[in-house]
Amino acid sequence: MKPTLARLGLTLAACAALVVACSSSDTSGGTGQAPPKLEPLSAVGNGEGELNLIAWAGYAENGSNDPKVDWVTPFEKESGCKVNVKLGNTSDEMVQLMRSGQYDGVSASGDATLRLIYAGDVAPVNTALVPNYASISPFLKDKPWNSVDGKMYGIPHGWGANLLMYNIGVVHDAPNSWASVFDGANEYKGKVTAYDSPIYIADAALYLSKTKPELGIKDPYSLTSAQLDAAVELLKAQKENISEYWSDYTKEVQAFESGTSVIGTTWQVIANTIGTENKVQVNTVLPKEGSTGWSDTWMVAAKAAHPNCMYKWMDWITSPKVNAQVAEYFGEAPAQTKACEFTTEKDFCDIYHATDETYAAQIHYWTTPQKQCVDGSGDNCTAYDEWVDKWQQIKG
Amino acid sequence: MTVGAKDGLTTEPPAASPRRRFGLAFLLVPPLTWLAVAYLGSLVVLLVSAFWTTNSFTGAVVHTVTGDNITRVLTDEVFRTVTLRTVGVALVVTVLCAVLAVPLALYMAKIASPRMRLALVVAVTTPLWASYLVKAYAWRMLFSPAGPLAWATGYSPGYGLIATVVTLTYLWLPYMIIPVFAAFERVPDSLIDASSDLGASDVSTLRMVVAPMVFPGIAAGSIFTFSLSLGDYIAVTIVGGKTQLLGNIIYGQLVTANNQPLAAALSIIPLFAIVLYLLAMRRTGALENV
Known about the structure:
The complex is a heterodimer of chains A (396) and B (290).
Chain A: H1 2-23, E1 50-55, H2 72-79, E2 82-87, H3 91-99, E3 105-108, H4 110-118, E4 122-123, E5 147-148, E6 151-152, E7 155-161, E8 163-167, E9 192-195, H5 201-211, H6 225-239, E10 242-246, H7 249-258, E11 263-266, H8 268-277, E12 282-285, E13 291-301, H9 307-317, H10 320-330, E14 333-334, H11 348-351, H12 357-361, E15 363-365, H13 384-395
Parallel strand pairs in A: 1-2, 1-3, 9-10, 9-11, 13-15
Antiparallel strand pairs in A: 3-13, 4-13, 5-6, 7-13, 7-14, 8-11, 8-12
Helix pairs in contact in A: 3-4, 5-6, 6-13, 7-8
Chain B: H1 2-11, H2 18-49, E1 53-54, E2 61-62, H3 68-75, H4 77-111, H5 114-125, H6 132-143, H7 148-153, H8 161-186, H9 189-197, H10 202-231, H11 235-239, H12 246-256, H13 260-283
Antiparallel strand pairs in B: 1-2
């Protein structure tokens, strides 16, 4: 046995040496203090013939899911860029995929964008090269989640709010406050649902900013340790009343239809799905405290192999007709103001409050919490990795 | 096992021609390379990366050696609670599988008619043909508050640990039944006859003659059920309600937090648990004849 053990040890040591030798060379570019200096494209030339995208499901449809839902094939014909789509299931997965360096662009939500920008994975965008950028809703431009120091790092795609959804057969008092899932959740003990992601801590923080002003929470993504702890306490108390957490949207649809959950946070598209299947009656409301939400941005990889095709794509996906198609298919507000003229459902933009700036202002869009407070209030905030640890503690 | 094989080689006359040696090397190099590079290599990468750290904002791995991750894994209360819960679930699933598998395997191997035996083998293995997710979601339907279980019995435990244990037991049961069935089949009928001829009761025969011969089969099956349950994190997200297991924590640290080093440090826990389990099995002597 002895020589075998020695040999095994030697092999392991050799492997370890190999690993260390191979990996010590790839040190990361971004320090997290300021984004690396990258120049945007100065002119869009001819397409490179190919385009590799990371997208949310439903954002780049080529007719393979539904022959009638196809805006990728016309783009391929017009631009000559063959599109390969890799679906990302979560923001975190998208960040990891982008880090692999094999993609030209990504439809990133606000809780992924800053991580991509500061790591140097995406480049600033020359908005002059994207003609359709001009008529994008003004309240989506130069926002903390898609720009740094006045430089846009992408083209806004669409947005939506996390709403409070309830089963009207069980919840009769037409709630209009997040209190129904926090302080008052006891009423629906074991039937409350919540979003299964550390970013949901912001929902608790937003509620606390209105109900406990003495904590001094101004922005739900800029929390000091004490404020984060307060939000965590609230969520730990909420857990007693939770039936289950959801992250993929079919799970919430099913939980409401089976009666496992009767009240909780949701997206409009989920309520629509439940409405179509018509097994239970649900209602959604934007509670009086305001809400968290998501705003997606198409971003260009810093080392994109096909930058021209990516610029053409960003212009295509935000063109009025296509943006209307995507928004209706996915169930969100289009970023393109002119898209409202092209929706098949005429009052679509009204339902989603697409051009309603005051409605949009009530939404606190997902953004990555960092040590340097995202609202600019100081440098003693809690970073996302702390949020992840806290979230695991909440779930126990 | 390897020692035995080696002894066999050394007692052979030293007539191995260069040609035979080449043939042997040709046969052994691919599996050994696979073992060393893909299997042990990936484990080593895991162990090494557990000592690195990350940039807290971008999540990029920083190659500075630190023991912080290991310390955190050992001291953090959440990790301890979840580890205990996960090992508990794995043990309960293993015991349940054994309790269900032994009588069934005994019936299949020793009592059932050949036709019945074939039917049962098919019945036990067909669920393996269906997708894991389909089976897990089927249990989600069963356990739902207004689902078939509640309708038929008036009671459903709802989504939680109980549902997780039941689902995992269902999922891994075939992996227990098959080795136990094989072990029962290997028990010669003549031994059982001899035992009863010598005046032993059926229970005594089972306990003193059959059980020692079947135990290695149960041990082999339990290694499957224990390790599969230990690593599972999908069933619990489907039927586990708000509970989380070690796999969910590791997944959360790796994918959500993008903290590969801490995830690596955490995955040493199941690795360690499996090694302990294997050592415990070896002590019982169950691995000698497998």
